[in-house]
Specification:
The protein is α+β, with helices and mostly antiparallel strands. It has 14 helices and 10 strands. Strands 4, 5, 6, 7, 8, 9 and 10 form a 7-stranded antiparallel sheet that branches. A hairpin with a 5-residue loop joins strand 2 and strand 3. The longest helix is centred in the N-terminal third of the chain and has 30 residues.
Amino acid sequence: MELYPQLDIAGGAASRRLIFLLAFLFFHAASALPQAAPPATERKSEIAKLYGAGRWNEVIGAVPESSNEDPDLELYRGLALAHLQRWPEAAKTFEAGLGGHPRDARFLTELAGIAYREKQFSRAKRELRRALALEPDDAYTNDFLASIYYLEGNVEAALKYWNRTGKPKLADLTFNPQPRLSPLILDRTFLFSPGAEWRLDRFLTTQAQLESLDLFPSLRFDLDSRPDGTFDLKYRAAERTPWPGPQWEGIVTVLRGLPYETAFPEFHDLDRHGLNWTSLLRWDDQKRRIFTEVAAPLEDDPKIRYHFYFDARDENWNVTNTIVPSIPSAAAFNLEKAAAGAEIQFIPSGLWQWNAGVECSYPSFAICKTFLRRQRDFLPAARRWQFARASTVR
Protein backbone atom coordinates (compact mmCIF):
# COMPACT_ATOMS: atom_id res chain seq x y z
CA MET A 1 0.00 0.00 0.00
CA GLU A 2 2.85 2.44 0.65
CA LEU A 3 4.34 1.94 -2.82
CA TYR A 4 1.38 3.51 -4.68
CA PRO A 5 1.85 7.08 -3.41
CA GLN A 6 5.51 6.99 -4.40
CA LEU A 7 4.61 5.69 -7.85
CA ASP A 8 1.99 8.50 -8.23
CA ILE A 9 4.50 11.20 -7.38
CA ALA A 10 7.12 9.91 -9.82
CA GLY A 11 4.53 9.40 -12.53
CA GLY A 12 3.17 13.00 -12.11
CA ALA A 13 6.64 14.56 -12.52
CA ALA A 14 7.23 12.60 -15.71
CA SER A 15 3.87 13.67 -17.08
CA ARG A 16 4.62 17.36 -16.45
CA ARG A 17 7.99 17.07 -18.22
CA LEU A 18 6.30 15.48 -21.21
CA ILE A 19 3.68 18.25 -21.35
CA PHE A 20 6.35 21.00 -21.26
CA LEU A 21 8.32 19.26 -24.01
CA LEU A 22 5.28 18.97 -26.27
CA ALA A 23 4.32 22.64 -25.65
CA PHE A 24 7.85 23.79 -26.51
CA LEU A 25 7.86 21.78 -29.73
CA PHE A 26 4.39 23.10 -30.69
CA PHE A 27 5.25 26.78 -30.21
CA HIS A 28 8.60 26.38 -31.96
CA ALA A 29 6.90 24.80 -34.96
CA ALA A 30 4.21 27.48 -34.99
CA SER A 31 6.74 30.29 -34.99
CA ALA A 32 8.53 28.68 -37.93
CA LEU A 33 5.38 28.69 -40.05
CA PRO A 34 4.93 31.73 -42.41
CA GLN A 35 2.70 34.40 -40.97
CA ALA A 36 -0.35 35.38 -42.99
CA ALA A 37 -0.16 39.01 -44.10
CA PRO A 38 -3.07 41.29 -43.25
CA PRO A 39 -5.33 41.84 -46.27
CA ALA A 40 -4.77 45.64 -46.40
CA THR A 41 -0.98 45.33 -46.30
CA GLU A 42 -0.99 42.62 -48.95
CA ARG A 43 -3.20 44.74 -51.22
CA LYS A 44 -1.02 47.78 -50.85
CA SER A 45 2.06 45.72 -51.64
CA GLU A 46 0.46 44.33 -54.81
CA ILE A 47 -0.56 47.79 -56.01
CA ALA A 48 2.93 49.11 -55.30
CA LYS A 49 4.34 46.33 -57.49
CA LEU A 50 1.90 47.21 -60.28
CA TYR A 51 2.86 50.85 -60.03
CA GLY A 52 6.57 50.03 -60.04
CA ALA A 53 6.07 47.96 -63.20
CA GLY A 54 4.33 50.87 -64.94
CA ARG A 55 1.00 49.04 -65.27
CA TRP A 56 -1.05 52.22 -64.81
CA ASN A 57 -4.45 50.91 -65.95
CA GLU A 58 -4.22 47.96 -63.58
CA VAL A 59 -3.41 50.33 -60.71
CA ILE A 60 -6.48 52.42 -61.56
CA GLY A 61 -8.65 49.30 -61.73
CA ALA A 62 -7.32 48.00 -58.41
CA VAL A 63 -8.00 51.27 -56.56
CA PRO A 64 -11.60 52.38 -57.13
CA GLU A 65 -12.62 55.99 -56.72
CA SER A 66 -13.58 56.30 -53.06
CA SER A 67 -13.42 58.90 -50.31
CA ASN A 68 -12.61 56.27 -47.64
CA GLU A 69 -9.55 54.81 -49.30
CA ASP A 70 -6.12 54.54 -47.74
CA PRO A 71 -4.08 57.71 -48.53
CA ASP A 72 -1.22 55.70 -50.06
CA LEU A 73 -3.63 53.91 -52.39
CA GLU A 74 -5.32 57.17 -53.40
CA LEU A 75 -1.91 58.56 -54.14
CA TYR A 76 -1.08 55.55 -56.35
CA ARG A 77 -4.34 56.00 -58.25
CA GLY A 78 -3.77 59.72 -58.83
CA LEU A 79 -0.18 59.17 -59.94
CA ALA A 80 -1.25 56.44 -62.36
CA LEU A 81 -3.85 58.78 -63.87
CA ALA A 82 -1.19 61.48 -64.15
CA HIS A 83 1.16 59.10 -65.97
CA LEU A 84 -1.63 58.52 -68.49
CA GLN A 85 -1.98 62.34 -68.76
CA ARG A 86 -5.58 62.18 -67.55
CA TRP A 87 -5.04 65.42 -65.69
CA PRO A 88 -8.64 66.29 -64.64
CA GLU A 89 -9.20 62.80 -63.18
CA ALA A 90 -5.83 62.87 -61.44
CA ALA A 91 -6.57 66.29 -59.93
CA LYS A 92 -9.98 65.04 -58.76
CA THR A 93 -8.35 62.04 -57.08
CA PHE A 94 -5.75 64.20 -55.30
CA GLU A 95 -8.42 66.67 -54.19
CA ALA A 96 -10.50 63.81 -52.79
CA GLY A 97 -7.45 62.48 -50.99
CA LEU A 98 -6.74 65.93 -49.57
CA GLY A 99 -10.36 66.23 -48.40
CA GLY A 100 -10.10 62.97 -46.50
CA HIS A 101 -6.56 63.59 -45.23
CA PRO A 102 -6.07 67.39 -44.95
CA ARG A 103 -2.73 67.03 -43.11
CA ASP A 104 -1.12 64.96 -45.86
CA ALA A 105 1.06 67.40 -47.83
CA ARG A 106 1.71 64.88 -50.62
CA PHE A 107 -1.66 65.60 -52.23
CA LEU A 108 -0.91 69.33 -52.35
CA THR A 109 2.48 68.67 -53.93
CA GLU A 110 0.93 66.46 -56.63
CA LEU A 111 -1.80 69.05 -57.30
CA ALA A 112 1.01 71.57 -57.80
CA GLY A 113 2.63 69.19 -60.26
CA ILE A 114 -0.56 69.03 -62.34
CA ALA A 115 -0.91 72.82 -62.25
CA TYR A 116 2.69 73.13 -63.41
CA ARG A 117 2.04 70.73 -66.30
CA GLU A 118 -0.89 72.90 -67.33
CA LYS A 119 1.34 76.01 -67.07
CA GLN A 120 -0.73 77.42 -64.20
CA PHE A 121 2.33 78.61 -62.31
CA SER A 122 0.50 80.84 -59.84
CA ARG A 123 -1.70 77.95 -58.76
CA ALA A 124 1.30 75.62 -58.55
CA LYS A 125 3.14 78.05 -56.26
CA ARG A 126 0.06 78.44 -54.07
CA GLU A 127 -0.32 74.69 -53.59
CA LEU A 128 3.39 74.27 -52.84
CA ARG A 129 3.30 77.02 -50.22
CA ARG A 130 0.34 75.25 -48.60
CA ALA A 131 2.32 72.00 -48.60
CA LEU A 132 5.30 73.74 -46.98
CA ALA A 133 3.02 75.11 -44.28
CA LEU A 134 2.43 71.46 -43.31
CA GLU A 135 5.99 70.18 -43.92
CA PRO A 136 8.43 73.14 -44.02
CA ASP A 137 11.54 70.95 -44.34
CA ASP A 138 10.42 68.77 -47.24
CA ALA A 139 13.34 68.87 -49.69
CA TYR A 140 11.35 67.99 -52.82
CA THR A 141 8.68 70.64 -52.25
CA ASN A 142 11.23 73.36 -51.47
CA ASP A 143 13.24 72.47 -54.55
CA PHE A 144 10.10 72.40 -56.74
CA LEU A 145 8.94 75.83 -55.57
CA ALA A 146 12.43 77.32 -55.93
CA SER A 147 12.68 76.00 -59.49
CA ILE A 148 9.41 77.68 -60.49
CA TYR A 149 10.55 81.00 -59.06
CA TYR A 150 13.90 80.67 -60.84
CA LEU A 151 12.23 79.96 -64.20
CA GLU A 152 10.15 83.10 -63.68
CA GLY A 153 13.33 85.13 -63.15
CA ASN A 154 12.75 85.70 -59.42
CA VAL A 155 16.19 84.68 -58.17
CA GLU A 156 15.60 86.16 -54.72
CA ALA A 157 12.53 83.99 -54.03
CA ALA A 158 14.23 80.93 -55.56
CA LEU A 159 17.20 81.25 -53.22
CA LYS A 160 14.90 81.62 -50.22
CA TYR A 161 13.53 78.09 -50.76
CA TRP A 162 16.69 76.52 -52.20
CA ASN A 163 18.66 77.58 -49.13
CA ARG A 164 16.34 75.50 -46.94
CA THR A 165 17.79 72.37 -48.57
CA GLY A 166 21.40 73.56 -48.74
CA LYS A 167 21.24 74.48 -52.43
CA PRO A 168 22.64 75.65 -54.76
CA LYS A 169 26.33 74.93 -54.27
CA LEU A 170 28.48 76.88 -56.72
CA ALA A 171 31.48 75.52 -58.58
CA ASP A 172 32.52 78.39 -60.85
CA LEU A 173 31.70 82.00 -61.75
CA THR A 174 31.76 83.19 -65.37
CA PHE A 175 30.90 86.42 -67.17
CA ASN A 176 29.30 86.92 -70.56
CA PRO A 177 30.68 89.24 -71.83
CA GLN A 178 33.75 89.76 -69.67
CA PRO A 179 33.51 93.20 -67.98
CA ARG A 180 36.29 95.72 -68.52
CA LEU A 181 35.97 96.76 -64.87
CA SER A 182 38.99 96.13 -62.66
CA PRO A 183 39.24 92.43 -61.62
CA LEU A 184 39.84 93.53 -58.02
CA ILE A 185 36.53 95.41 -57.89
CA LEU A 186 34.73 92.52 -59.61
CA ASP A 187 36.10 90.07 -57.08
CA ARG A 188 34.95 92.25 -54.19
CA THR A 189 31.54 92.88 -55.75
CA PHE A 190 30.59 89.24 -56.33
CA LEU A 191 30.42 87.46 -52.97
CA PHE A 192 31.27 84.08 -54.44
CA SER A 193 33.09 81.10 -52.94
CA PRO A 194 33.68 77.88 -54.95
CA GLY A 195 32.08 74.87 -53.29
CA ALA A 196 29.96 77.04 -50.96
CA GLU A 197 26.22 77.48 -50.91
CA TRP A 198 24.90 80.56 -52.69
CA ARG A 199 23.04 82.24 -49.87
CA LEU A 200 20.24 84.77 -50.30
CA ASP A 201 22.05 87.39 -48.23
CA ARG A 202 25.13 87.14 -50.49
CA PHE A 203 22.99 87.53 -53.59
CA LEU A 204 21.25 90.63 -52.20
CA THR A 205 24.56 92.23 -51.22
CA THR A 206 26.07 91.49 -54.64
CA GLN A 207 23.01 92.94 -56.33
CA ALA A 208 23.13 96.11 -54.23
CA GLN A 209 26.83 96.64 -55.01
CA LEU A 210 26.29 96.11 -58.74
CA GLU A 211 23.46 98.65 -58.76
CA SER A 212 25.62 101.10 -56.84
CA LEU A 213 28.37 100.87 -59.48
CA ASP A 214 25.83 102.12 -62.08
CA LEU A 215 27.65 100.26 -64.84
CA PHE A 216 25.18 97.49 -65.63
CA PRO A 217 21.71 98.67 -66.77
CA SER A 218 20.25 95.17 -66.39
CA LEU A 219 21.35 92.27 -64.22
CA ARG A 220 20.86 88.58 -65.03
CA PHE A 221 22.12 85.54 -63.16
CA ASP A 222 21.99 82.04 -64.71
CA LEU A 223 22.68 78.70 -63.07
CA ASP A 224 24.00 75.77 -65.12
CA SER A 225 23.93 72.40 -63.36
CA ARG A 226 26.86 70.00 -63.31
CA PRO A 227 26.77 66.18 -63.08
CA ASP A 228 28.03 66.29 -59.49
CA GLY A 229 25.04 68.37 -58.37
CA THR A 230 26.87 71.71 -58.18
CA PHE A 231 26.16 74.75 -60.35
CA ASP A 232 28.09 77.24 -62.44
CA LEU A 233 26.97 80.82 -61.82
CA LYS A 234 26.91 82.89 -65.02
CA TYR A 235 26.52 86.64 -64.94
CA ARG A 236 25.13 88.13 -68.13
CA ALA A 237 25.00 91.91 -68.45
CA ALA A 238 25.97 94.61 -70.91
CA GLU A 239 28.43 97.03 -69.34
CA ARG A 240 28.38 100.78 -69.81
CA THR A 241 31.61 102.08 -71.37
CA PRO A 242 33.27 105.53 -71.33
CA TRP A 243 31.84 106.27 -74.78
CA PRO A 244 28.65 104.29 -75.54
CA GLY A 245 29.25 102.12 -78.59
CA PRO A 246 30.28 103.47 -81.99
CA GLN A 247 30.83 107.20 -82.45
CA TRP A 248 27.39 107.85 -83.93
CA GLU A 249 25.69 105.92 -81.11
CA GLY A 250 27.51 107.99 -78.49
CA ILE A 251 26.51 111.23 -80.20
CA VAL A 252 22.86 110.13 -80.30
CA THR A 253 23.01 109.23 -76.59
CA VAL A 254 24.44 112.60 -75.61
CA LEU A 255 21.99 114.56 -77.79
CA ARG A 256 18.87 112.48 -77.15
CA GLY A 257 17.25 115.47 -75.43
CA LEU A 258 17.97 117.88 -78.28
CA PRO A 259 14.25 118.48 -79.08
CA TYR A 260 13.95 119.81 -75.53
CA GLU A 261 17.16 121.87 -75.78
CA THR A 262 18.93 119.44 -73.45
CA ALA A 263 22.13 117.40 -73.69
CA PHE A 264 23.27 114.50 -71.47
CA PRO A 265 27.07 114.13 -71.53
CA GLU A 266 27.74 110.86 -69.67
CA PHE A 267 30.97 108.87 -69.35
CA HIS A 268 31.16 105.62 -67.37
CA ASP A 269 34.09 103.64 -65.97
CA LEU A 270 36.61 106.19 -67.17
CA ASP A 271 39.60 104.59 -65.46
CA ARG A 272 38.35 100.96 -65.29
CA HIS A 273 37.86 101.51 -61.56
CA GLY A 274 34.20 102.49 -61.68
CA LEU A 275 34.61 106.27 -62.07
CA ASN A 276 31.45 107.74 -63.61
CA TRP A 277 30.86 111.30 -64.77
CA THR A 278 27.26 112.18 -65.59
CA SER A 279 25.88 115.61 -66.41
CA LEU A 280 22.95 117.51 -67.85
CA LEU A 281 22.96 120.76 -69.80
CA ARG A 282 19.69 122.55 -70.67
CA TRP A 283 19.68 125.90 -72.47
CA ASP A 284 15.92 126.46 -72.69
CA ASP A 285 15.26 130.17 -71.94
CA GLN A 286 12.62 129.23 -69.36
CA LYS A 287 14.34 126.21 -67.80
CA ARG A 288 18.08 126.71 -67.81
CA ARG A 289 20.03 124.13 -65.83
CA ILE A 290 23.55 122.74 -65.38
CA PHE A 291 24.10 119.53 -63.41
CA THR A 292 27.22 117.39 -63.08
CA GLU A 293 28.23 114.52 -60.81
CA VAL A 294 31.32 112.39 -60.29
CA ALA A 295 31.04 109.06 -58.43
CA ALA A 296 33.32 106.08 -57.86
CA PRO A 297 34.10 103.33 -55.30
CA LEU A 298 36.38 104.45 -52.51
CA GLU A 299 39.71 102.57 -52.49
CA ASP A 300 38.28 100.05 -55.01
CA ASP A 301 35.75 98.89 -52.42
CA PRO A 302 32.24 98.59 -53.93
CA LYS A 303 30.72 98.74 -50.44
CA ILE A 304 31.80 102.37 -50.07
CA ARG A 305 31.07 104.88 -52.81
CA TYR A 306 31.55 108.67 -52.95
CA HIS A 307 29.67 111.34 -54.93
CA PHE A 308 30.52 114.96 -55.76
CA TYR A 309 27.90 117.05 -57.52
CA PHE A 310 27.01 120.58 -58.62
CA ASP A 311 23.53 121.72 -59.65
CA ALA A 312 22.53 125.20 -60.84
CA ARG A 313 19.18 126.17 -62.31
CA ASP A 314 17.18 129.22 -63.30
CA GLU A 315 13.67 128.16 -64.22
CA ASN A 316 10.35 129.92 -64.81
CA TRP A 317 7.27 127.79 -64.35
CA ASN A 318 3.71 128.55 -65.41
CA VAL A 319 1.19 126.68 -63.24
CA THR A 320 -1.94 128.45 -64.39
CA ASN A 321 -5.13 126.87 -63.01
CA THR A 322 -3.23 124.00 -61.34
CA ILE A 323 -3.48 125.03 -57.66
CA VAL A 324 -7.24 125.78 -57.63
CA PRO A 325 -8.40 124.27 -60.96
CA SER A 326 -12.01 125.45 -60.61
CA ILE A 327 -10.95 129.11 -60.32
CA PRO A 328 -9.44 130.78 -63.39
CA SER A 329 -6.15 132.38 -62.43
CA ALA A 330 -2.73 133.30 -63.72
CA ALA A 331 0.12 131.84 -61.70
CA ALA A 332 3.85 131.46 -62.22
CA PHE A 333 7.02 131.19 -60.17
CA ASN A 334 10.71 131.44 -60.68
CA LEU A 335 13.20 128.98 -59.21
CA GLU A 336 16.82 129.95 -58.86
CA LYS A 337 19.13 127.53 -57.12
CA ALA A 338 22.80 126.69 -56.95
CA ALA A 339 23.95 123.71 -54.90
CA ALA A 340 27.20 121.80 -54.45
CA GLY A 341 27.71 118.82 -52.24
CA ALA A 342 29.49 115.59 -51.41
CA GLU A 343 28.04 112.29 -50.28
CA ILE A 344 29.36 108.91 -49.23
CA GLN A 345 27.34 105.71 -49.44
CA PHE A 346 27.87 102.59 -47.33
CA ILE A 347 26.44 99.14 -48.23
CA PRO A 348 26.92 96.82 -45.23
CA SER A 349 24.54 94.27 -46.76
CA GLY A 350 21.82 93.92 -49.32
CA LEU A 351 19.15 94.48 -46.68
CA TRP A 352 20.16 97.99 -45.67
CA GLN A 353 22.52 100.84 -46.54
CA TRP A 354 23.08 104.37 -45.35
CA ASN A 355 24.35 107.64 -46.75
CA ALA A 356 26.05 110.66 -45.24
CA GLY A 357 26.77 113.93 -46.97
CA VAL A 358 26.96 117.72 -46.90
CA GLU A 359 25.45 120.30 -49.25
CA CYS A 360 25.86 124.03 -49.64
CA SER A 361 23.12 125.77 -51.59
CA TYR A 362 21.68 129.17 -52.36
CA PRO A 363 17.96 128.86 -53.13
CA SER A 364 15.61 131.63 -54.20
CA PHE A 365 11.92 130.97 -54.74
CA ALA A 366 9.72 133.79 -56.08
CA ILE A 367 5.97 133.72 -56.64
CA CYS A 368 4.70 136.43 -58.98
CA LYS A 369 2.61 139.28 -57.59
CA THR A 370 -0.35 138.40 -59.82
CA PHE A 371 -0.75 135.03 -58.11
CA LEU A 372 -0.85 136.48 -54.61
CA ARG A 373 -3.17 139.30 -55.47
CA ARG A 374 -5.70 137.26 -57.43
CA GLN A 375 -5.74 134.31 -55.06
CA ARG A 376 -5.70 136.20 -51.77
CA ASP A 377 -9.47 136.22 -51.39
CA PHE A 378 -9.78 132.49 -51.96
CA LEU A 379 -7.16 131.25 -49.49
CA PRO A 380 -7.68 130.75 -45.75
CA ALA A 381 -5.83 133.13 -43.48
CA ALA A 382 -3.26 130.52 -42.44
CA ARG A 383 -2.46 129.65 -46.05
CA ARG A 384 -2.11 133.36 -46.98
CA TRP A 385 0.37 133.79 -44.14
CA GLN A 386 2.40 130.77 -45.32
CA PHE A 387 2.53 132.09 -48.87
CA ALA A 388 3.55 135.54 -47.67
CA ARG A 389 6.44 134.14 -45.64
CA ALA A 390 7.65 131.79 -48.40
CA SER A 391 7.44 134.35 -51.19
CA THR A 392 9.73 137.04 -52.41
CA VAL A 393 7.72 139.44 -54.54
CA ARG A 394 9.66 141.17 -57.28
